[in-house]
C-alpha cells in the first residue's frame, strides 16, 4: 500500500469531481430561484421541480459528479477528495473572470488563494491512510 | 425600522436550521458513502480486472452505499428547500464550508482517516476560502 502517487487518469477523475459539482449546483440554483416559493407543507412540489429543464440539467451534472466522486473515494481518503471538490469553485470563479469577463472582487481573489493553498497542502500529502487491508494489493499482484 | 416585506428572507434561526439540515445530512451521507467505497476497494482496478459491469455490481450490492445515498438524497432535497427560501450566496458557501470541517471531524472519528495537521489546515483554509469566494 505504499503507492500514493496518482495516475493521470486519477487526476482526470478528480478534475471531473471538481468541475461537475459547482456547474450542477449553479444549474439547480437557476432552476429553483425561478420557481415560486415552495411551502414546507407541500414537499411534493419539490419532486415536481425535478422535471424542470434547469433542475434536470443540474441533476445530470451531479450524476456525472457522483460517479467520478465514488471512483475517487475508492482509491483516496474522503479528507483528500473533498478539497478537490472545493477547487471546482476556483475553476468557476476563474471562468467567470476570464471567459464571462465578470469582475472578481478582492475578497474572491483572497478566497481563490486560500482554497488553492489548502488544496496544495492536501495534494502534497498521501492520498490514502495506510490502514487498508493488505489483501487488495495481494489480489492485484496475483 | 424596516417595513415587513413579503419577499423577505427567513430569520436567522430558520436559515441556520435549513443550513444545519443540509450539513448534517450531507456529512452523514458522505461518510457512509466513503466507508462503502473503502470496503469495496479500487473501482478502477475492479473494472480493469473484471469489467465495467463488475464495478457497477460491486457498488450496487453494498448496503452501506445505499445508506449513504439515502442521506445524500435527504441532503439534496434539504438543499433544494433551502435554495427556494434563501439566497445561493448564503446557502452554498455556508453549507459547503461547514461540511468540509464536519467531514474532517467525521473522517477522523468514523473512517479512522489520518487527518494530520496538513489536512486540518487545508480544511480550515478551504472553508474560509469557499466562504470568501461565494459570499
Task: Report what the structure shows.
The complex is a heterodimer of chains A (142) and B (135). By secondary structure, chain A is mainly α. Chain A has one domain. Chain A contains six helices and no strands. In chain A, helix 4 runs antiparallel to helix 5 (106-124). Chain B is mainly α and 135 residues long. Chain B has one domain. Chain B contains six helices and no strands. In chain B, helix 1 (12-40) packs across helix 5. At the A-B interface, helix 1, helix 3, helix 4 and helix 5 of A face helix 1, helix 2, helix 4, helix 5 and helix 6 of B.
Give a nutshell description of this structure.
With 142 residues, chain A is an all-alpha fold.
How many beta-strand runs of chain B?
0
Taken as a percent bin, the fraction of beta residues of chain A is under 5%
Task: Write the H/E string of chain A, N to C.
Answer: HHHHHH
Count of domain modules of chain A: 1
Mean pLDDT of chain B: 85
Q: How many domains make up the 3D coordinates of chain B?
A: 1
Q: What is the mean predicted local confidence, pLDDT of chain A?
A: 79
Largest sheet of chain B: none
Note poorly predicted spans of chain A: 132-142
* Global shape of chain B: globular
Q: Helix content range of the residues of chain B, please? A: over 70%
Contiguous low-pLDDT stretches of chain B (5 residues minimum) are none
What structural class do the secondary elements of chain A suggest? mainly alpha
The helix-and-strand class of chain B reads mainly alpha
